[in-house]
Structure formats: C-alpha cells, structure tokens
Amino acid sequence: MASITSLGIGSGLDLNSLLDKLTKAEQGRLTPYVNQQSSYKAQLTAFGTLKSALSKFDDLSAALAKNDFFSATTINSDSKAFSASSSASAQPGNYTILVEQLAQAQTLMTQGNISSQSEQLGTAGASGRTLTLTTEGNPPKTTEIPLSDDQTSLLELRDAINGAKAGVTASIIHVKDDEYQLSISSSQTGEDNTISLSVKNDDKLNSLLNYDSASGSGAMKETAAAQNAKIQMNGLDIERSSNTITDAPQGVTITLKAKSKEPETMTIGVDTAGIVDKIKSWVDSYNSLQDTFSSLTKYTPVKSGEAQSTKNGALLGDSTLRGIQSTIESTLNAAQGNPDLKGLESLGISTDLKTGKLSLDTEKLTKALTDKPEQVRNFFAGDTKETGMATQLHTQIQDYIKKDGVIDTSTESINLNLTRLDSQITSLNSSIASTIARYQKQFVQLDTMMSKLNNTSAYLSQQFTAMSKQ
User: Fold this and answer.
1) Are both 125 and 57 inside the same structural domain?
2) Which family is this sequence assigned to (predicted)?
C-alpha cells in the first residue's frame, strides 16, 4: 500500500501514524496462521530427517537379516604369486596352490624395416583392398576391414583395426630410430584365442600382414604365444584360459600374478572379526537413531502461563514418532527362540537405561560367534521372513519408510494442511488489504471535510472581525 504523505494536512491530525497503527493491528490477524505454517514446515523437515535416519538403520538391519551375513568368509594368504577373495558361499578350509603357468594373449609383430609410421605401405590404386582378421575362441569371429589407399600406413592400420572392434588390440612399437613395427594382440588370454589375418587385393600389404595361427606361419612373427593358466591345487591340476579363476574352489576368486617357486597356502575361514565390526556399525547406527529421536522430541521447560519454547523438537508429542520408538524398542527387547542366546545381553549388547543407547562388548560377541554361531545367526536373521530380531526390525521399519507408508501418509496430511493454510492466508491478506483501503478512504474523506470546516471557520472569523470594526 502506497504511503499517503499528504494525509492529515487538511485536518492537522496525524492520520498517517494512525493508519500505520491500524495496518499493523490488522496484519496481526495473520500471526497465528503464519506460526502454524512455520510449524507444519518444521514438521515436514523433521519427518525427512526421521526417514533418513530410519533408512540408514534399516540398511544395516536388512544386512543382519540375511543368512549370508553370518557366512561371510575371509582368506589368509601371504602369496606373491596370487591374490584371492571369497564370498559367503565359500567353504572354510586349507588349500595349497602352485602357479605353474600364467595365461597370456597371443601377440603378432610385423617384420622388416618400416622407417616411418605414416608411410603408405600398400599398393597404390589397389581396388577392393580388405584386411580379413579372424579370432578363434568361443565363438570364432571374422572381421573384414576395407582399406583405402590412405589407410595402409602403420598409423591408419592401427586406427582401422582398433575401430573395427575385432577382438584384438593394435599398437605401434617404436623399435629404434627410423624403425617402427605394428603389434597385434588378442583381447583375450588363453590358448584357444588365436589370431589369423590376411589382406585381399593387395599383395604388397599382404606380404607384411599375413599370418595363419593354425600352421604358425606367415609374414608376421608370433612374439607371445596364446596359453592357458595352469595351477596345482591340493595336488590337482587345474587349467583355465584366464588368470582369474572363479570356481576353484567355489565361492573363491583367485587372481594369478606370477609363477610360484613352491606351493603356497591359502586358508579360508569364517570372517568373525568382520561380522563383529558390522554388528558394531549396526549398534552405532541405532545410537545415532536415538539421537535423532531425542532431537525431534526435545522439550524445553517454561514457567507456568508462558508459551511453549521455540526450541522444542518439531515432532514433540507426535504419535507417529512415538509409535516408531515403541515398536523398535519392543523388538530389541523381545526374546528370540534360542536355547542359550535369547536376548541382546547374551550377545554382549547392553542398553543404557538413562539414554536408551546400546553398547557392545566385542569380546563377548566374538565368543558367542565362535561358540554358538548358528544361535547368533538365528537371533538376528531367524527364518529371514518373520522371525529373527533384525528380520522383524527390517519389516517394521519398511512399513514406516516405504512409498505410501506411515511417514508418507503423515507428510501428505501436513501438506494438505499447508495447502488449506495458504488459501486462508491468501484470503486473509485480501481482507486486510480491503480493510486498510477502507480506512484510507475514510481518512481522506475526514481530511477533506476537516479542511472545508477549517476554511469555513476562518472565513466566518474574518467576517465577525470586520463586522466588529464597523
């Protein structure tokens, strides 16, 4: 609303100040609506924070609800000839491994003196020149690469071969000053992955590039033979086309790096330390969730008759959050169907009665995992569907955080309330503007009337003065 700077001049009254006070008083009608709007927005943010904290805790609970979690294995080996990793399907045991031979890819090299990598090496004007490249393996693949006159230099040949994606890699080797060679290597290792190539309709280029792997003859020279990896495992001969062996033993991936001088030991065992670390992460996540609960339900005491503190948590007294807390705490405290390990305390996980947070005795948990691994698994995972503490937690939390779950329903209700509030605030702003406009009009009329009355009074005073002098 534009300020009426001339208001009050006619009457001599401070109508501008009075109008400002009336405007402020009218706008005060918005305060409860704006405060409610801020409260709803704070609740939306709080539910977002709650959902994020629950999701992090749920991720770890879901991991503990899987049988594989408690079957995690670890590999102990100091070998320089190989490295190994294991999955939950690996069976604990001891293995001796001797790496006899590494798998390698076949490599062919051009021969003769090629003094320039950009010099055209084919017959100028040759028609229908085609490089035919065959890679054996499963399945075999034949690729025909048309070559123009300006594609017969080492540079262009390299780019044409690599661009054809024929299962080989071409590169240029700078042997010494004024000598270059073209190297072609199979993209895969193994004795079955060999290369043959020839050039049609250009005898000159063919005399440089032809090679037949079946006979082992041609213009090119084999500088590295295609060969399989060979190892002995517990005295058993094992052969693979790759240096990565994924099925001997099952659940273990062995990556060969060098030949062995003598057999080396690989030990597969249950990863007890890793399981303890992950359960500790679960405990830490639960404690972080408790901090979130405390922050969102914080209460700041006030004196009798005073308004609630603005420092209170946005979800103080919220029934949804109270329900989540109650559900999780009940599940944590419920006994599971084990002969010995029925509750968290038996696993070395205790609850602080003041803070509600958990603490972990890693030695006690390690002993439980060592002495009664199946009972520990059953405590957390159960049947992975209905029983087991972590299984039940995961199911319950999903009901809260999933799409269209409890939290989404709560936030949808808040958004509906915000929409109604926005409509009410818009309507109230319009009403306030109309009221102020009416006051302004009335003040202008008052000012005008007072101005006329003042003028009439002055005129009459002048007339009375003049009459008294006669």
Assistant:
1) no
2) Belongs to the FliD family.
**What domain range is 117 assigned to?**
107-224
312: which 2 tokens?
A: 């209170």
Rounded Cα gap, residues 370 and 364, in angstroms: 10
Domain boundary among 270, 297, 330: 270
Predicted TM-score of the model (pTM)? 0.73
Query: What's 296's domain CATH number?
Result: 1.20.1330
Neighbouring-strand partners of residue 95:
266
Look up residue 297 and give its two tokens.
């339900």
pLDDT 10s digit of each residue in the chain, 470 long?
A: 344 445 655 555 666 777 778 778 878 888 888 888 888 999 999 999 999 999 999 999 999 999 999 999 999 999 999 999 999 899 999 999 999 999 999 999 999 899 999 999 999 999 999 999 999 987 899 999 999 999 999 999 999 999 999 999 999 999 999 999 999 999 999 999 999 999 999 999 999 999 999 999 999 999 999 999 999 999 999 999 999 999 999 999 999 999 999 999 999 999 999 999 999 999 999 999 999 999 999 988 878 777 777 788 899 999 999 999 999 999 999 999 899 999 999 999 999 999 999 999 999 999 999 999 999 999 999 999 999 999 999 999 999 999 999 999 999 999 999 999 888 888 888 888 888 888 778 777 776 777 777 777 777 788 778 787 76
Number of domains observed in the structure of the chain:
3
Tokens (6 digits) for 177: 């000053």
Spatial separation of the C-alpha atoms in residues 89 and 73, rounded to whole Å: 8
> Which two three-digit tokens encode residue 304?
């009798």
Give the whole-angstrom CA distance, residue 298 versus residue 44. 16
Are 307 and 395 part of one and the same domain? yes
Identify whether residues 327 and 456 lie together within a single domain: yes
